[in-house]
Amino acid sequence: MLKYCTLTLSLLLVSIFCAGQNPQAEKELQSVIDDLDVVGLSVVVVNKGDIVYKHQFGMQDVEKNIPLSDRTLFRIASISKSFSAVTIMQLIEAGKLSLDDDASKLVGFAVRNPKFPDKVITLKMLLSHTSSINDSQGYFYLDLIDPAKNPNWAKCYGDYAPGAKYLYCNLNFNMIGAIIERQTGERFDQRIKHRILDPLGLYGGYCVDSLDASRFATLYDYDSLNKRFTPMPQAYAPRTEDIRNYTMGYSTPVFSPTGGMKITAEDLAKYMTMHMYNGSYKGVKIMSAKSAEKMREKISEEEGYGMAMRTATELIPGKVLKGHTGSAYGLYSAMFFDPKDKFGFVVITNGCIPDNQSDIRNVLSRSIAILYNNIIKK
Hints:
7-stranded antiparallel β-sheet; 17% strand; 378 residues; globular; Beta-lactamase; disordered N terminus; Methane Monooxygenase Hydroxylase, Chain G, domain 1; alpha+beta; 3-stranded antiparallel β-sheet
């Protein structure tokens, strides 16, 4: 197996034992690290509402020789979608939105599949990836799907009726972010901060300029052709000019509601615990139990997807977990929990060789199994 010698002579092991030690788990996780040339790995385990284990392996930044720590901020990719969904549920609870609302009315331009013009695309369809919208034209700008801005807008839609099929689509959630701004009058990143992060006491956010850049985990994308890792600093591009010329309710993709949250593994675990306990964490209520349960309900039976929450039965035999994964710029992340037995896991790597060059989540599933067997099941 190729070793990560181009960036470092050996993979530094860094141990943080504030929440307990487990030598066997570390030994088995180190084996995964060796197999997949993992640059850095951060893991957190929650049981019965408390963090019972956390550990960091490897490097936050190889070139600067900075090891991972519990202060390291990761861009967690698609797990970010769940923060938008929580905000929507808060607005529904406040009577400002309904899951059956027409997306066209909410986003401010026609959101209609031209092959099914009479079929309303609802807010629920956007949240559950059943809108018939796709990312074939990209997803970084709402202009792509706005009929007044793009003559090729129709290519953003599939050839099946809205609500009939699941297709994972980032553009759905960039529109969700714009809807949040239009409904609240508050910039997307600030809304998430004020209504989720601050009440839970979490440090993080979608706006790079508001965070301590020295804490960012450098992300390393693996080039399978040249067999090397490449740093991806664009993962934390500040978008300063875009924010200066910001249009509320339209420029929202600047903050990437679909994947732009930056947060530590430990704080993500606290956020996960809020979901595990049906919308509340340590006495702080973020959303109602009904809303939390609604997010987890399977809308697509085949894919097991609800509203920014997926059902996973393959990770731990006999257990039904809820959560999400993320992948971008070489990072792979996972947040999964058991809402019945009240345990959960956060696993994040800032770079690795995908096992057999196929299953990009293998480092995540293998790590979760190790953590369950050595910490929860024991």
